[in-house]
Design goal:
Number of helices: 8
Order of helices and strands: HEHEHEHEEHEHEHEEH
Strand content: 15-25%
Largest sheet: 5 strands, parallel
CATH class of the largest domain: Alpha Beta
Mean pLDDT: 91
Radius of gyration: 21 Å
CATH architecture of the largest domain: 3-Layer(aba) Sandwich
Number of strands: 9
Strand order of the largest sheet: 7-6-5-9-8
Shape: elongated
Distance between the termini: 55 Å
CATH superfamily of the largest domain: SPOUT methyltransferase, trefoil knot domain
Length: about 250
């Protein structure tokens, strides 16, 4: 095992890895749990792993090491690289993986995000999707990078459980997927709690600052979330959570 670690250290030392950039054909997971999710759902995309010896008592890190040794995945201790790339005191490990391009399931319900801009919000939304049995995400450009390590960390690695596709416009998405559309519009008179969803559904949300453009008032069935007038709108991730929970519960009852 000591020899294997030495060889791996040499292999890794000659590879010039650096802080993540969007144009890379690979990305990173930061932390033990997201890395375990990568191993569980996308093992063939895993390239190599760096770990911080300070986390040797972590049971999850032990599982990661075992997987690497059993499957001949390069792994090596490198606390400086982990700290440099992950920018977190308790990351303990960083996994490098190849990016991939899954496709949406045309028979399933979709979540559609129009122009999301915040990596943390996107990651939180993806984690919420998995919690409420939503496995297909359409992202309309311009939009944040779904492979940003910040997105992956915020999703706790649940990104690896979903299908996702980017589209240059909503028209491009609409052309490919004919179904029941439900844009969330704050001015809509139809309330979420009285909405009966049809299958397959596309639940559509705008970005964090502007919401959906006016043209979505003419698309599908506009819905809104009941709230008081102390605020003008809810945070995007909060709004998605409320709608997905209602959608999930409505289908449990049917």
């Amino acid at each position: 095992m000591q020899l294997s670690m030495t060889i791996c250290r040499y292999i890794l030392s000659i590879m010039k890895l650096t802080v993540y950039q969007k144009e890379f054909d690979y990305s990173y997971t930061f932390g033990v749990y997201p890395t375990l999710e990568l191993i569980k759902y996308r093992p063939n995309n895993l390239i190599q792993i760096f770990f911080d010896p300070k986390g040797d008592s972590n049971m999850g890190l032990s599982q990661i090491k075992q997987h690497c040794f059993q499957n001949k995945v390069p792994i090596a201790p490198d606390s400086k690289f982990v700290q440099k790339v992950a920018e977190s005191e308790n990351a303990y490990c960083v996994a490098q993986f190849k990016k991939y391009s899954p496709k949406l399931n045309p028979q399933s319900n979709h979540l559609v995000l129009v122009g999301p801009r915040d990596a943390g919000n996107l990651g939180t939304i993806i984690r919420t999707m998995v919690g409420f049995d939503f496995a297909n995400l359409a992202v309309i450009r311009p939009a944040v990078d779904i492979f940003s390590p910040k997105t992956i960390r915020a999703s706790m690695g649940e990104l690896f459980q979903i299908n996702f596709e980017y589209f240059d416009s909503f028209v491009d998405y609409q052309t490919q997927f004919s179904r029941h559309y439900y844009p969330l519009v704050t001015s809509a008179s139809k309330k979420l709690e009285s909405t009966i969803f049809n299958h397959p559904s596309s639940l559509i949300f705008g970005n964090e600052s502007a919401g959906l453009p006016n043209e979505f008032n003419q698309i599908g069935t506009n819905i809104s979330i009941s709230q008081n007038h102390q605020i003008d709108s809810l945070n995007l991730a909060s709004a998605v959570s409320i709608v997905l929970h209602h959608f999930y519960c409505s289908f449990l009852k049917s």
